[in-house]
Protein backbone atom coordinates (compact mmCIF):
# COMPACT_ATOMS: atom_id res chain seq x y z
CA UNK A 1 0.00 0.00 0.00
CA UNK A 2 2.71 2.49 1.07
CA UNK A 3 4.96 1.72 -1.92
CA UNK A 4 2.05 2.00 -4.34
CA UNK A 5 1.17 5.46 -3.08
CA UNK A 6 4.56 7.20 -2.77
CA UNK A 7 7.68 7.47 -4.88
CA UNK A 8 10.75 8.43 -2.82
CA UNK A 9 13.97 9.14 -4.68
CA UNK A 10 16.96 11.45 -5.11
CA UNK A 11 15.71 14.74 -6.56
CA UNK A 12 16.89 16.30 -9.83
CA UNK A 13 16.28 19.21 -12.20
CA UNK A 14 12.79 17.90 -13.01
CA UNK A 15 11.73 18.50 -9.39
CA UNK A 16 12.66 22.21 -9.26
CA UNK A 17 8.99 23.01 -9.90
CA UNK A 18 8.25 21.91 -6.30
CA UNK A 19 10.86 24.19 -4.65
CA UNK A 20 8.48 27.02 -3.78
CA UNK A 21 5.83 24.67 -2.35
CA UNK A 22 8.56 23.11 -0.20
CA UNK A 23 9.92 26.38 1.23
CA UNK A 24 6.39 27.69 1.88
CA UNK A 25 5.52 24.52 3.78
CA UNK A 26 8.78 24.66 5.76
CA UNK A 27 7.95 28.18 6.91
CA UNK A 28 4.26 27.51 7.68
CA UNK A 29 5.07 24.33 9.62
CA UNK A 30 7.68 26.15 11.73
CA UNK A 31 5.17 28.90 12.52
CA UNK A 32 2.51 26.34 13.42
CA UNK A 33 4.94 24.55 15.75
CA UNK A 34 6.26 27.82 17.17
CA UNK A 35 9.83 26.62 16.67
CA UNK A 36 12.84 28.10 14.95
CA UNK A 37 14.17 26.88 11.61
CA UNK A 38 16.96 27.86 9.29
CA UNK A 39 15.01 29.52 6.46
CA UNK A 40 15.81 28.39 2.93
CA UNK A 41 14.97 30.08 -0.38
CA UNK A 42 13.43 28.23 -3.34
CA UNK A 43 16.72 28.90 -5.20
CA UNK A 44 18.71 27.14 -2.48
CA UNK A 45 16.38 24.12 -2.66
CA UNK A 46 16.70 24.03 -6.46
CA UNK A 47 20.49 24.05 -6.17
CA UNK A 48 20.37 21.07 -3.83
CA UNK A 49 18.14 19.21 -6.32
CA UNK A 50 20.44 19.99 -9.24
CA UNK A 51 23.51 18.89 -7.25
CA UNK A 52 21.90 15.53 -6.45
CA UNK A 53 21.91 16.39 -2.74
CA UNK A 54 18.19 16.04 -2.00
CA UNK A 55 15.48 13.42 -1.66
CA UNK A 56 11.90 14.06 -2.71
CA UNK A 57 8.68 12.13 -2.11
CA UNK A 58 5.79 12.40 -4.55
CA UNK A 59 2.48 10.58 -4.74
CA UNK A 60 1.87 8.32 -7.70
CA UNK A 61 -0.16 11.19 -9.20
CA UNK A 62 2.77 13.62 -8.95
CA UNK A 63 1.66 15.56 -5.87
CA UNK A 64 4.53 16.75 -3.66
CA UNK A 65 4.62 14.78 -0.38
CA UNK A 66 7.99 15.33 1.30
CA UNK A 67 11.59 16.52 1.08
CA UNK A 68 15.00 16.55 2.78
CA UNK A 69 18.50 17.60 1.66
CA UNK A 70 22.15 17.06 2.55
CA UNK A 71 25.25 19.22 2.54
CA UNK A 72 28.92 18.50 3.24
CA UNK A 73 30.85 20.67 5.71
CA UNK A 74 34.38 20.94 7.03
CA UNK A 75 35.92 19.79 3.72
CA UNK A 76 33.73 16.69 3.70
CA UNK A 77 34.52 15.60 7.24
CA UNK A 78 30.82 16.02 8.04
CA UNK A 79 27.57 15.79 6.13
CA UNK A 80 24.38 17.36 7.49
CA UNK A 81 20.83 16.13 6.87
CA UNK A 82 18.55 19.16 6.88
CA UNK A 83 15.16 20.56 5.99
CA UNK A 84 13.05 17.44 6.52
CA UNK A 85 9.45 18.28 5.71
CA UNK A 86 6.37 16.15 5.01
CA UNK A 87 3.23 17.67 3.53
CA UNK A 88 0.48 17.91 6.20
CA UNK A 89 -1.74 15.83 3.86
CA UNK A 90 0.60 12.85 4.21
CA UNK A 91 1.86 12.92 7.80
CA UNK A 92 1.76 9.88 10.10
CA UNK A 93 2.01 7.43 7.17
CA UNK A 94 5.67 6.65 7.87
CA UNK A 95 6.86 8.95 5.09
CA UNK A 96 9.44 10.86 7.16
CA UNK A 97 11.03 7.55 8.16
CA UNK A 98 11.29 6.44 4.51
CA UNK A 99 12.67 9.82 3.39
CA UNK A 100 15.29 9.78 6.16
CA UNK A 101 16.31 6.24 5.19
CA UNK A 102 16.80 7.40 1.60
CA UNK A 103 18.71 10.50 2.75
CA UNK A 104 20.92 8.32 4.91
CA UNK A 105 21.65 6.07 1.90
CA UNK A 106 22.42 9.11 -0.27
CA UNK A 107 24.74 10.56 2.40
CA UNK A 108 26.63 7.28 2.77
CA UNK A 109 26.93 6.89 -1.01
CA UNK A 110 28.13 10.42 -1.73
CA UNK A 111 30.26 10.85 1.39
CA UNK A 112 31.19 7.34 2.64
CA UNK A 113 33.87 8.59 5.05
CA UNK A 114 31.91 11.50 6.54
CA UNK A 115 30.22 11.69 9.90
CA UNK A 116 26.51 12.41 9.38
CA UNK A 117 24.62 14.77 11.66
CA UNK A 118 21.38 16.65 12.08
CA UNK A 119 19.95 19.29 14.41
CA UNK A 120 16.33 18.89 15.43
CA UNK A 121 13.67 19.89 17.93
CA UNK A 122 11.31 17.16 16.69
CA UNK A 123 10.52 13.95 18.60
CA UNK A 124 9.71 12.11 15.35
CA UNK A 125 13.12 12.96 13.88
CA UNK A 126 14.94 11.93 17.07
CA UNK A 127 13.16 8.59 16.98
CA UNK A 128 13.95 7.98 13.30
CA UNK A 129 17.58 9.09 13.71
CA UNK A 130 18.04 6.69 16.64
CA UNK A 131 16.68 3.83 14.53
CA UNK A 132 19.26 4.67 11.85
CA UNK A 133 22.15 4.62 14.34
CA UNK A 134 22.54 8.30 15.19
CA UNK A 135 23.06 9.24 18.83
CA UNK A 136 22.78 12.57 20.69
CA UNK A 137 25.99 14.59 21.00
CA UNK A 138 27.02 18.02 22.19
CA UNK A 139 27.61 20.73 19.61
CA UNK A 140 31.36 20.49 20.15
CA UNK A 141 31.21 17.12 18.35
CA UNK A 142 29.82 18.76 15.21
CA UNK A 143 31.51 20.67 12.41
CA UNK A 144 33.20 23.96 13.21
CA UNK A 145 32.63 25.12 9.61
CA UNK A 146 31.53 28.76 9.89
CA UNK A 147 29.31 28.45 6.85
CA UNK A 148 27.25 25.70 8.47
CA UNK A 149 26.58 27.79 11.57
CA UNK A 150 25.76 30.83 9.43
CA UNK A 151 22.76 28.78 8.27
CA UNK A 152 21.33 29.22 11.79
CA UNK A 153 21.28 33.02 11.43
CA UNK A 154 17.76 32.95 9.98
CA UNK A 155 16.43 30.95 12.98
CA UNK A 156 14.53 32.85 15.70
CA UNK A 157 16.71 31.11 18.30
CA UNK A 158 20.00 32.37 16.84
CA UNK A 159 20.57 34.85 19.73
CA UNK A 160 20.34 31.89 22.15
CA UNK A 161 22.92 29.93 20.14
CA UNK A 162 25.31 32.88 20.12
CA UNK A 163 24.76 33.70 23.81
CA UNK A 164 26.09 30.19 24.52
CA UNK A 165 29.09 30.55 22.23
CA UNK A 166 27.56 28.01 19.86
CA UNK A 167 27.95 25.27 22.48
CA UNK A 168 24.21 24.74 22.93
CA UNK A 169 20.76 25.77 21.73
CA UNK A 170 17.18 24.44 21.56
CA UNK A 171 17.97 21.82 18.91
CA UNK A 172 19.27 18.38 19.83
CA UNK A 173 22.35 17.39 17.81
CA UNK A 174 22.51 13.78 16.59
CA UNK A 175 25.51 12.15 14.96
CA UNK A 176 26.21 8.99 12.97
CA UNK A 177 29.83 7.86 12.80
CA UNK A 178 30.81 5.53 9.95
CA UNK A 179 32.43 2.32 11.11
CA UNK A 180 36.11 2.34 10.35
C1 LIG B 1 8.14 15.77 11.72
C2 LIG B 1 7.59 15.23 10.41
C3 LIG B 1 8.69 15.28 9.36
C4 LIG B 1 7.15 13.77 10.64
O1 LIG B 1 6.67 13.24 9.39
P1 LIG B 1 5.75 11.96 9.32
O2 LIG B 1 5.80 11.43 7.92
O3 LIG B 1 4.43 12.26 9.88
O4 LIG B 1 6.53 10.96 10.30
P2 LIG B 1 6.41 9.35 10.29
O5 LIG B 1 5.00 8.98 9.95
O6 LIG B 1 7.48 8.77 9.44
O7 LIG B 1 6.68 9.04 11.80
C5 LIG B 1 7.88 8.48 12.27
C6 LIG B 1 7.74 8.21 13.75
O8 LIG B 1 7.66 9.43 14.47
C7 LIG B 1 6.44 9.52 15.21
N1 LIG B 1 5.91 10.86 15.07
C8 LIG B 1 5.44 11.45 13.96
N2 LIG B 1 5.08 12.72 14.20
C9 LIG B 1 5.34 12.94 15.51
C10 LIG B 1 5.19 14.05 16.37
N3 LIG B 1 4.71 15.22 15.92
N4 LIG B 1 5.56 13.92 17.68
C11 LIG B 1 6.07 12.75 18.14
N5 LIG B 1 6.25 11.66 17.36
C12 LIG B 1 5.88 11.75 16.07
C13 LIG B 1 5.50 8.50 14.58
O9 LIG B 1 4.58 8.01 15.52
C14 LIG B 1 6.46 7.45 14.08
O10 LIG B 1 6.80 6.52 15.06
P3 LIG B 1 6.13 5.04 15.12
O11 LIG B 1 6.24 4.49 13.73
O12 LIG B 1 6.97 4.30 16.09
O13 LIG B 1 4.72 5.26 15.54
C15 LIG B 1 6.36 16.03 9.93
O14 LIG B 1 5.41 16.09 10.97
C16 LIG B 1 6.71 17.45 9.49
O15 LIG B 1 7.05 17.69 8.33
N6 LIG B 1 6.64 18.41 10.45
C17 LIG B 1 7.01 19.80 10.17
C18 LIG B 1 8.47 19.98 9.88
C19 LIG B 1 9.37 19.37 10.91
O16 LIG B 1 9.08 19.35 12.10
N7 LIG B 1 10.51 18.87 10.42
C20 LIG B 1 11.56 18.32 11.23
C21 LIG B 1 12.56 19.39 11.48
S1 LIG B 1 14.04 18.71 12.14
How are the elements arranged and paired?
Layout: H1 2-5, E1 6-10, H2 19-33, H3 42-50, E2 54-59, E3 64-73, E4 78-86, H4 95-110, E5 115-120, H5 123-132, E6 135-137, H6 146-150, H7 158-163, E7 172-176
Parallel strand pairs: 4-5
Antiparallel strand pairs: 1-2, 2-3, 3-4, 5-7, 6-7
Helix pairs in contact: 2-3, 4-5
The chain binds coenzyme A (COA).
Q: Which whole number gives the mean pLDDT?
A: 94
Provide the gyration radius in Å. Answer: 16 Å
Query: Which regions are unreliable across 5 or more consecutive residues at pLDDT < 50?
Result: none
Query: Which superfamily, in CATH terms, is the homologous superfamily?
Result: Gcn5-related N-acetyltransferase (GNAT)
- Per the principal axes of the C-alpha atoms, what is the gross shape? globular
At the first level of CATH, the class is: Alpha Beta
Structural class: alpha+beta
